[in-house]
């Protein structure tokens, strides 16, 4: 049962017009959100203004510089919890914006907060945290309409109610430009029942803003600072904003998107904040970095422009991992010296599968939910972070699919075109199912999409009890998704096109098999060393068209 915390972060006897904020981080023993007599302060808790970082003294007190339009926030220490609002959103910040958001924004921003309070206090509650825990990772939920909010509710949230995960995170593109849907979205995600953190994306932008300065006013209203950190067990989770809005002084009131663009870059201010934050963090801590746009990609089609500055701040730390969304593809990238990261080892960057898949494009299932496979053929879904001390792994979960469903197995004669005229009516391309002639076997290949695979994955296949044969990774489109988009053209959004996937594996089909029915087993070792198996059935008939009397065995 969720508990609604009534939070009074600002407890004051009067007002101060000084440019310094002061207050106390305290143990909220009765969980009423306000500091009562006898409630003790907490030492060594980090408090920030988005640039400087200070630690509380032995009594839990802090002082820090503050400017108008600042957000003060506390880094949640391990073994403590911050209050949550009705929708399970963490309340770890205080917004100081005396005049509120500028006029002219389509969607409501920050109401005027008035003068700086004399005391800004942050309540915390002791909460045990196991070294071994799980967290949910969403990317690009991105509903464009209220109907697509229904999809999120029915396709993802419903199966996660009652989860044992410690918390969840969404890697930006929470919505698709219509920021009026934030309240309903938050209410739906809140039903999962765990604290939920959010990263800003390029579709949470107030497009009427004249610069990046005021581009996240509505985001801040609901979620607080666009970059921040929190501890859980032996890990520090760092949320960064790498979307810089280029500004729009000429927004057309009839155009929700306006005409402003953006670029993927980290601001100097937040990099200074991160440098200050990390100065208090031990070198062996697990650092988990979350952004919206990727830091980089295998084909360099996406890259955060000043990522080397981030790498410099992280160098020398042995336990690093980062995630992003944005591309609606799934990728694993390993940064090394050639990329400006000096180590130790490689910096593993993981571009996550999206909840919305191909922006909720696709045919409908029996529930009326769009079957929205990504552009690289990965089903829409989410990831589960598994942490054990400073070790971690991430596993993919397709929405509404069994946990073991980690691959798609296909037979393909794309390059041979032996029986174009004999394809099934529902096949408009050259993708073969598991029934083919001996001649087709000689020309066919087996193709596997390992949904969360990457450059370190190993895939092989065998027929019945034969020896496993290695498969090679190749950058190519998933033939299934190409055909799905062709077959269901009317359900595909105009910008959705199949793209080359980084987790496709293929091999020539063993042409030594004669007519008969066989089990094809695919064995895959993923980026974390876990082994997955998939199976399909192959039927081979004699001759080009098979026996007139049926199959020969």
How would you describe the overall organization of this protein?
The protein is α+β, with helices and mostly antiparallel strands. The chain contains seven helices and 30 strands. The protein has a nine-stranded mixed beta sheet with strand order 23-22-25-28-27-26-29-30-24. Helix 1 (146-160) packs parallel to helix 2.
Q: Quaternary arrangement of the chains shown?
A: single chain
CATH class of the largest domain: Alpha Beta
Helix and strand content put the structural class at alpha+beta
Low-confidence stretches: 1-18, 415-430, 544-553
- How far apart lie the N and C ends? 60 Å
Largest sheet: 9 strands, mixed
Calculate Rg over CA atoms: 26 Å
Q: Can I get a quick summary?
A:
This protein has 7 helices and 30 strands. With 553 residues, the chain is of the alpha+beta class.
Furnish the topology, listing elements before pairings:
Elements: E1 20-27, E2 46-48, E3 53-55, E4 61-65, E5 70-74, E6 80-81, E7 93-96, E8 122-126, E9 132-138, H1 146-160, E10 168-170, H2 182-190, E11 196-198, H3 217-223, E12 228-232, E13 235-239, E14 243-245, E15 262-264, H4 268-278, E16 286-290, H5 307-314, E17 320-324, E18 331-335, E19 347-351, E20 381-388, E21 391-398, E22 407-412, E23 431-432, E24 435-437, H6 438-443, E25 445-450, E26 458-463, E27 469-476, H7 479-487, E28 501-508, E29 516-525, E30 531-541
Parallel strand pairs: 1-8, 9-10, 10-11, 13-16, 16-17, 17-19, 24-30
Antiparallel strand pairs: 1-4, 2-3, 2-5, 5-7, 6-8, 9-20, 12-13, 14-15, 18-19, 20-21, 22-23, 22-25, 25-28, 26-27, 26-29, 27-28, 29-30
Helix pairs in contact: 1-2
């Amino acid at each position: 049962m969720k508990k609604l915390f009534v939070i009074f972060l600002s407890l004051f006897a009067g007002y101060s017009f000084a440019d310094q904020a002061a207050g106390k981080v305290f143990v909220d023993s009765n969980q009423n959100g306000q500091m009562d007599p006898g409630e003790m302060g907490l030492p060594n808790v980090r408090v920030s203004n988005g640039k400087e970082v200070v630690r509380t003294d032995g009594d839990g007190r802090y002082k820090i510089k503050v400017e108008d339009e600042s957000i003060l926030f506390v880094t949640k220490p391990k073994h403590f919890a911050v209050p949550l609002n009705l929708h399970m959103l963490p309340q770890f910040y205080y917004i100081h914006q005396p005049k509120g958001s500028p006029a002219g924004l389509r969607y409501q921003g920050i109401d005027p907060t008035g003068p700086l309070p004399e005391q800004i206090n942050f309540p915390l509650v002791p909460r045990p945290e196991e070294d071994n825990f799980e967290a949910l990772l969403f990317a690009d939920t991105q509903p464009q309409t209220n109907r697509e909010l229904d999809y999120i509710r029915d396709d993802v949230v419903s199966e996660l109610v009652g989860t044992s995960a410690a918390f969840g995170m969404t890697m930006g593109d929470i919505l698709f430009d219509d920021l009026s849907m934030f309240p309903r979205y938050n209410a739906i995600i809140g039903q999962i029942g765990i604290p939920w953190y959010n990263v800003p994306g390029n579709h949470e932008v107030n497009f009427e803003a004249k610069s990046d300065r005021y581009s996240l006013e509505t985001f801040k209203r609901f979620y607080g600072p666009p970059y921040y950190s929190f501890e859980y067990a032996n890990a520090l989770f760092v949320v960064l904003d790498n979307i810089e809005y280029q500004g729009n002084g000429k927004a057309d009131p009839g155009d929700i998107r306006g005409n402003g663009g953006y670029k993927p870059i980290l601001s100097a201010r937040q990099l200074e904040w991160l440098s200050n934050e990390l100065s208090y963090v031990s070198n062996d801590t697990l650092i988990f970095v979350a952004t919206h746009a990727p830091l980089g990609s295998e084909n360099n089609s996406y890259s955060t422009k000043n990522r080397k500055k981030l790498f410099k701040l992280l160098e020398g730390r042995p336990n690093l991992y980062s995630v992003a969304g944005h591309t609606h593809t799934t990728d694993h990238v390993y940064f090394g010296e050639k990329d400006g990261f000096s180590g130790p080892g490689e910096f593993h960057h993981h571009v996550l599968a999206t909840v919305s898949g191909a922006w909720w494009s696709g045919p409908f299932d029996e529930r009326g939910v769009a079957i929205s496979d990504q552009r690289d053929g990965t089903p829409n879904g989410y990831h589960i972070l598994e942490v054990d001390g400073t070790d971690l792994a991430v596993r993919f979960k397709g929405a509404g699919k069994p946990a073991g469903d980690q691959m798609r197995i296909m037979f393909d004669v794309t390059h041979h075109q032996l029986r174009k005229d004999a394809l099934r009516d529902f096949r408009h391309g050259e993708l073969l199912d598991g029934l083919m002639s001996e001649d087709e076997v000689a020309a066919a290949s087996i193709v596997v999409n390992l949904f969360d695979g990457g450059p370190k994955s190993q895939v092989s296949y065998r027929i019945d009890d034969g020896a496993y044969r290695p498969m090679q990774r190749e950058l190519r489109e998933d033939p299934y998704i190409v055909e799905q988009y062709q077959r269901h053209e009317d359900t595909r959004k105009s910008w959705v096109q199949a793209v080359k996937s980084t987790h496709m594996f293929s091999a020539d089909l063993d042409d030594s098999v004669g007519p008969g029915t066989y089990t094809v087993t695919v064995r895959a070792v993923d980026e974390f060393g876990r082994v997955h198996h998939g199976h399909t059935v192959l039927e081979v008939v004699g001759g080009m068209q098979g026996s007139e009397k049926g199959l020969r065995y």
